[in-house]
């Protein structure tokens, strides 16, 4: 089969690999029909994720059809149309029983990281009963591909961890795919002020279309602008959706007393925490890897047309064009890419 293989920092290639096989009774083999590229894949290629070893097939998102199911799989059968969760869950360990699937003792974020992933024609899904979702009849595959990772990530790590509430003020630092996903799902809770902050004016235009009440480019006046929009207090919820020191430090400057900084970005280097200023501010800082506990809820919202994740898709490619897809996604400032979808 064809697969996009990681060969170390800065090196990848589309090549022929053996098709995966059932290794454990709870496994399923899924034939991919759609996949995508995540910012985390770019972090792997930068060398920020040492758990991903050379030789691993990248990708942790996708939609497909069950090709084969292990003897212990009871909820899925060959021919079933499925959404693949970016998080693998055994459903039985202590962490899974707490709903912390990302910390599953026999799973978590392993696809395209510690085991072969979804940027291929076929993928092996461990613990299939807890790691796949049935695709409703008539569902848009492109839209559902966004439910593998970015929508639950923006919602759980940003909106839910940030405790967005009706009438509150929210500032989202970063209007890439994750920031836009947080912006879309924050509107479930009707915040009064919803500010998108990003240096890319094209992405700010998208954020405004997606429901931001205000859009700002980060500069020396950003903090005062946010305070002017929030009665001088700062934002009740600040969502960090970039993953670099400067963006996190901006969040520290933007948060109101008693507010929450919800970190979503993947950080590859240390970040300064300015407790000399914040020790008395009663703020909360949250971190999280998505657990995908919200995927069924978000799937219902999509099917009810309360959420339109297909709007995030800006570019489409075939699997044989994966190198071009990566180039387009990696140069988003030039190509205006938000999410790319790859047809397999």
TrEMBL record:
PROSITE patterns linked: ADH_ZINC
Signal peptide: none
UniProt keywords, alphabetically: Metal-binding, Oxidoreductase, Zinc
InterPro entries documented for this protein: ADH-like_C (IPR013149), ADH-like_N (IPR013154), ADH_Zn_CS (IPR002328), ER (IPR020843), GroES-like_sf (IPR011032), NAD(P)-bd_dom_sf (IPR036291)
Source domain of life: Bacteria
Keyword Metal-binding: yes
Cofactors named for this entry: Zn(2+)
Record carries keyword Cell inner membrane: no
GO molecular function per UniProt: oxidoreductase activity, acting on the CH-OH group of donors, NAD or NADP as acceptor; zinc ion binding
Residue span, Enoyl reductase (ER) domain: 10-342
Family assignment from sequence similarity: Belongs to the zinc-containing alcohol dehydrogenase family.
Protein name according to UniProt: Alcohol dehydrogenase catalytic domain-containing protein
């Amino acid at each position: 089969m064809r697969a996009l293989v990681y060969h170390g920092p800065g090196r990848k290639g589309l090549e022929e690999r053996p098709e995966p096989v059932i290794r454990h009774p709870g496994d399923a083999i899924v034939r991919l029909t759609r996949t995508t590229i995540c910012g985390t894949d770019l972090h792997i290629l930068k060398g920020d994720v040492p758990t991903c070893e050379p030789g691993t097939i990248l990708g942790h998102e996708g939609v497909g059809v069950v090709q084969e199911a292990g003897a212990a799989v009871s909820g899925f059968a060959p021919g079933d149309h499925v959404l693949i969760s970016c998080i693998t869950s055994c459903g039985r360990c202590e962490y899974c029983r707490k709903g912390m699937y990302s910390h599953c003792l026999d799973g978590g974020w392993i696809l395209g990281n510690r085991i072969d992933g979804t940027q291929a024609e076929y993928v092996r899904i461990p613990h299939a009963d807890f790691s796949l979702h049935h695709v409703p009849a008539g569902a848009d595959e492109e839209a559902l591909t966004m439910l593998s990772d970015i929508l639950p990530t923006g919602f759980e790590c940003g909106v839910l961890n940030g405790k967005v509430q009706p009438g509150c003020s929210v500032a989202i630092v970063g209007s890439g795919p994750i920031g836009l996903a947080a912006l879309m799902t924050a509107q479930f809770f009707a915040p009064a002020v919803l500010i998108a902050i990003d240096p890319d004016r094209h992405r700010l235009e998208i954020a405004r279309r997606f429901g931001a009440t205000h859009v700002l480019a980060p500069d020396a006046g950003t903090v005062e602008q946010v305070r002017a929009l929030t009665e001088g207090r700062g934002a009740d919820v600040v969502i960090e959706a970039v993953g670099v020191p400067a963006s996190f430090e901006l969040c520290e400057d933007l948060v109101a007393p008693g507010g929450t900084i919800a970190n979503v970005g993947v950080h590859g280097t240390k970040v300064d925490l300015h407790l000399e200023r914040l020790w008395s501010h009663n703020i909360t800082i949250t971190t999280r890897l998505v657990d995908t506990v919200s995927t069924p809820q978000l799937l219902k919202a999509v099917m009810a047309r309360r959420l339109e994740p297909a709007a995030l898709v800006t570019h489409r490619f075939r699997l044989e064009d994966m190198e071009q897809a990566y180039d387009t996604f990696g140069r988003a400032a030039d190509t205006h890419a938000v999410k790319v979808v790859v047809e397999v």
